[in-house]
Write a structure and sequence with these properties.
Radius of gyration: 24 Å
Number of strands: 17
CATH topology of the largest domain: Rossmann fold
CATH class of the largest domain: Alpha Beta
Bound molecules: NADPH dihydro-nicotinamide-adenine-dinucleotide phosphate, L-homoserine
Strand content: 25-35%
Number of helices: 15
CATH architecture of the largest domain: 3-Layer(aba) Sandwich
Structural class: alpha/beta
């Protein structure tokens, strides 16, 4: 059988890794796919870079449109990123009857519904294993391996850059900025690194997983998002002292009233496996009613780990392209006409325990005032730290851990505490996730 022909859009970090691994492991990949898979066209704005990778038989262009409309191309691999040009290119490719493989979580989280519908209409596949957690085969696990289960929740460290920064801050006490710089140099960060550190990239990924886990449309606009930029070295140290690690988590959970969808830093008990996931590594815990908690671990970013997922999709598409579209694995795991309208809950309706750090004046009655406010909002304290100060009148940190409380009540209590004259500045709140199933 003739090899399947791939048009590669973008030969940067992931595109470069994909080309290299596909070439290096060609013989084994062919034996697995049952047919050769060759890149026959590459588009990149940087023609010199593209030529430095491409074999002489490969057509190189700086016009990606030429590839998505080319009659010889069977599969488009979109690795340019972004939500505008990439969207046009993918929709054009689909309209031309081509299958698509992409690592573009921003695009799918925002426009997945439109793209998946277009693909369904044309009977082509859109595969996106690389879009979530880099090299970890989490999409396939959720979509195919856990289909017996009613998924209860998913919690994941799903941004390699943010995890790399938090690890370096904790282990080496390094400041934020130079570590982010290093993550960018290593090719982990998004084109706009604000996506990594503000939690947006993790929110794209948890939105996609939530849709697959619960059979709902992708609804990025409903996600609650908080990044790691406000975390300080002292919060990381206090958390450590209390037996926790701070991680940026993507969480989606089915509760009675709907579905939680959120990204924020969280204290996780240090004894949990996931609390010990460091550097660019990612980990996702999926709790199913039948299987219990399962953990998926691996490199969350970088050229070859991400290429591993891109190529797995290429093999899948190659194997499946002759199958009747009705009998292929559904894109979001559930049959498209059987998606549910279970609402995604506003953050105020979510219940979590919290770590609170307050700066107060060390004088009689302060603690009583604060605990009074917490009691008024039905918030119960589970642990507390106050270090000795130089003397009365000094400013001191008080750290409190609360039991689980409705977010709405915690917000109101924080606002009230911040208005007390004995409290200076903002209260730092980091949610706690026990992740104990
Ligand atoms: P890079 O910036 O390294 O590569 C993108 C390449 O595409 C660059 O060479 C860029 O050229 C080129 N390009 C951009 N726009 C166009 C265009 N219109 N026409 C032709 N070429 C274009 O990005 P990554 O490889 O890091 O990321 C690619 C995708 O993979 C993104 O969606 C990202 O979110 C996703 N991803 C990345 C991971 C990673 O570890 N890096 C992991 C998982 C997913 P130029 O540089 O000149 O703009
Ligand atoms: N910027 C992303 C990260 C790339 O750091 O996790 C992988 O999706």
């Amino acid at each position: 059988m003739n090899p399947i022909k791939v048009g590669l859009l973008g030969i940067g970090t992931v595109g470069g890794g994909t080309y290299t691994v596909l070439k290096r492991n060609q013989e084994e990949i062919t034996r697995r796919a049952g047919r050769g898979i060759i890149v026959s066209m590459i588009a990149d704005r940087d023609l010199e870079r593209a030529r430095s990778f491409a074999d002489s038989s490969v057509i190189v262009t700086d016009n990606a449109q030429d590839i998505v409309t080319h009659p010889d191309i069977d599969i488009i691999v979109e690795l340019i990123g972004g939500t505008t040009i990439a969207k046009d290119l993918i929709l054009t490719a689909i309209a031309q009857g081509k299958h698509v493989v992409t690592a573009n979580k921003a695009l799918l989280a925002n426009h997945g519904t439109e793209i998946f519908a277009a693909a369904r209409d044309k009977g082509v596949m859109v595969a996106f294993e690389a879009a979530v957690a880099g090299g970890i085969p989490i999409i396939k696990s959720l979509r195919e391996s856990l289909t017996a289960n009613r998924i209860e929740w998913i919690a994941g460290i799903i941004n390699g850059t943010a995890n790399f920064i938090l690890s370096e801050m904790r282990e080496k006490s390094l400041p934020f900025a130079p570590v982010l710089d290093q993550a960018q140099k290593l090719g982990y960060a998004e084109a706009d690194p604000a996506y990594d550190i503000e939690g947006i990239d993790a929110a794209h990924k948890i939105t996609i997983m939530s849709a697959i886990a619960f059979g709902i449309p992708v609804q990025f606009d409903k996600a609650y998002i908080e990044g790691i930029t406000k975390l300080t070295q002292e919060d990381i140290s206090y958390a450590e002292e209390l037996g926790y690690r701070i991680k940026l988590l993507g969480i989606t959970r089915r509760v009675e009233t709907g579905i939680e969808l959120r990204v924020h830093p969280a204290l996780i008990p240090a004894r949990r496996l996931i609390a010990n996931v460091e550097g660019v590594m990612n980990a996702v815990v999926v709790k199913g009613d039948a299987v219990g908690a399962t953990l998926y671990y691996g490199a969350g970013a970088g050229a070859e780990p991400t290429a591993s997922s891109v190529i797995a999709d290429l093999v899948d598409v190659t194997r499946m392209q002759t199958a009747d579209p009705m009998h292929r694995v559904p894109t979001l795991s559930f049959q498209p006409d059987l998606l549910s309208d279970t609402p995604v809950l506003p953050m105020e309706a979510v219940e979590t325990a919290c770590y609170l750090r307050l700066q107060v004046i060390d004088k009689p009655g302060v603690l009583a005032e604060i605990t009074r406010v917490l009691a008024d909002f039905n918030i119960s304290i589970s642990a507390m730290i106050q270090k000795e100060t130089g003397g009365e009148g000094d400013t001191v940190n008080i750290i409190m851990l609360t039991h689980k409380t409705l977010e709405k009540n915690t917000n109101a209590a924080i606002a009230k505490i911040e208005s007390l004259p004995v409290v200076s500045g903002k209260v730092t709140r980091i949610r706690i996730e026990e992740l104990n199933g």
